[in-house]
Structures are given as structure tokens and as C-alpha cells.
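Hi support team,

I've been running sequence recovery on a batch of backbones for a student project. Most finish fine, but this one hangs at about 90% for roughly twenty minutes before it completes. I'm not sure whether the input is malformed or the queue is just slow. I've pasted the C-alpha cells below so you can try to reproduce it. Let me know if you need the job ID as well.

Thanks,
M.K.
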């Protein structure tokens, strides 16, 4: 069977009951923006621990400087600091984990405790950042929609999203080639190097400053496009359809 991706929602909630319902739903993964995991531990098989579908990620919280600016009434500065922080490698790794769950059709709820006032005021910044950079849609529990609207997708944002997953090794080269909208978006320098190394065209210890990226972008783009066509051809062969996993192919890009 053809496996489609991005069918599950990314929900943001401050509702305690909604959080508990999601924790008790095996189809959900709950991400809690808090720095106190002990508050969410349950008695499981004789010991207190987090439910297996719960992660407490303080890395998503605004940094001290952002919170301090908020307390001082400098709300715009607070949001700008938080937005800049979201670009840090630690947060990008965390977001990649969330996106990978969504990619594999696992619904994700990000829960923000109701008493986290400075955090609450940064939520719109987080929501806007995730959409502006990656095209990922957040919703609430009363209006659940998939994380990506594949009928109206911004291919430049999708390219950045797939690049993030590939660079974090959560999708392999074949999946990267299939998902990446190579006809519409150039490869990033880091992706050029990674594809080159994986295909044996570049040495693993290559110095980026010595690379002619104009040349290698063309070479790697052709390689990725050729790999995509090969995978699509396998998909079009009924005997191989169970080996292919796609969100969409370039032949099926929404108008």
C-alpha cells in the first residue's frame, strides 16, 4: 500500500484536561513546555515515571533574556529574542523530532501549563515561526487539521523542512530525494555536502571552504532528481508499490 505522510495534526493547548486526554490516547505524543518533569510523572508499574508518550522539553521555553524582557514590559524585544533562540541547534533538533513524528502520522500535542505567563505570551511567536519557516500548521483541539496542507503547500518551506529532517538523519537519502521539491528549490550547501558524501562524490572530511558550490549544486541536483525519478518509476510498478513511501511526488504537486 502507498503510505501517505503528514496526515496528523500538531495541536497546541493550555487545557489541562485536553493534555490528560492526549496522554491517555496511544495515537498521540505529548510535548510539555515545562522545566519540571516531576509534575507529570505517574505511578507506572510500581514507580513514578513519565508515560511513554510524554516528553517534557524545557528547550522549547523562552530563554531567560526573553522572559526578563517580558517582565520589564519590553514585549517586542522578548519575542525577538525568543524567535532568534528558536534558530539555535538545540531547538532545531527538538523541532525535527516533532516534525518526524508528524511525518510518520503521529499526532503531537504541545502543552503549555496555564500558569506559565511569560511562556504563554511567546506562544504566538512559536506558532508563527513554525509556519513561516517550515509551513507547518498548528491548531487547537476544537479545529483539528493536518500539520501540512498538501493541497496548498509552499514548496520553498517544504524544502527547508525536508532538509532539516535529512540533516538530522531522520529520513534516509532515498526519502530525501523523493520528498525534496528539487525542481523548485535549490539544495542547501549542507545538503549538497551530505548527498555528495553519501553517494561517494565527496570525501567525508571535505573542507566546505574548498567546494565550488555552483558546480556541486548542479551535480547533486541532477543526482537527487534522477533518484527521485527512479523511485517514482518503482512506485508506478504495481509489484513494487509496497516499497515506496511518499507524501507526494513532483508528478502530483497540487496546482
Amino acid at each position: 500500500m502507498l503510505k501517505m505522510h503528514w496526515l496528523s495534526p500538531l495541536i497546541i493547548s493550555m487545557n489541562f484536561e485536553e493534555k490528560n486526554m492526549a496522554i491517555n490516547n496511544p495515537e498521540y505524543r505529548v510535548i510539555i513546555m515545562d522545566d519540571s518533569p516531576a509534575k507529570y510523572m505517574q505511578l507506572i508499574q510500581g514507580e513514578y515515571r513519565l508515560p511513554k508518550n510524554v516528553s517534557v522539553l524545557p528547550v522549547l521555553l523562552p530563554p531567560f533574556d526573553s522572559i526578563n524582557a517580558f517582565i520589564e514590559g519590553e514585549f517586542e524585544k522578548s519575542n525577538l529574542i525568543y524567535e532568534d533562540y528558536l534558530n539555535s541547534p538545540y531547538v532545531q533538533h527538538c523541532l525535527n523530532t516533532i516534525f518526524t513524528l508528524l511525518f510518520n502520522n503521529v499526532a503531537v500535542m504541545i502543552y503549555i501549563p496555564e500558569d506559565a505567563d511569560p511562556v504563554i505570551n511567546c506562544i504566538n511567536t512559536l506558532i508563527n515561526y513554525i509556519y513561516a519557516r517550515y509551513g507547518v500548521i498548528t491548531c487547537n483541539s476544537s479545529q483539528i487539521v493536518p500539520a501540512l496542507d498538501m493541497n496548498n503547500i509552499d514548496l520553498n518551506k517544504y524544502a527547508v523542512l525536508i532538509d532539516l529532517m535529512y540533516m538530522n538523519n531522520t529520513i534516509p537519502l532515498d526519502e530525501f530525494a523523493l520528498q525534496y521539491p528539487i525542481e523548485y528549490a535549490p539544495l542547501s550547501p549542507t545538503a549538497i555536502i551530505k548527498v555528495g558524501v553519501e553517494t561517494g562524490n565527496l570525501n567525508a572530511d571535505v573542507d566546505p571552504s574548498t567546494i565550488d558550490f555552483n558546480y556541486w549544486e548542479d551535480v547533486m541536483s541532477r543526482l537527487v532528481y534522477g533518484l527521485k525519478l527512479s523511485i517514482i518509476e518503482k512506485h508506478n510498478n504495481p509489484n513494487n508499490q509496497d516499497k515506496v513511501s511518499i507524501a507526494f511526488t513532483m508528478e502530483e504537486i497540487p496546482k
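--
Follow-up from support: It reproduced on our side and the slowdown came from queue contention, not your input. The first strand starts at residue 10 and ends at 13. No action needed from you.
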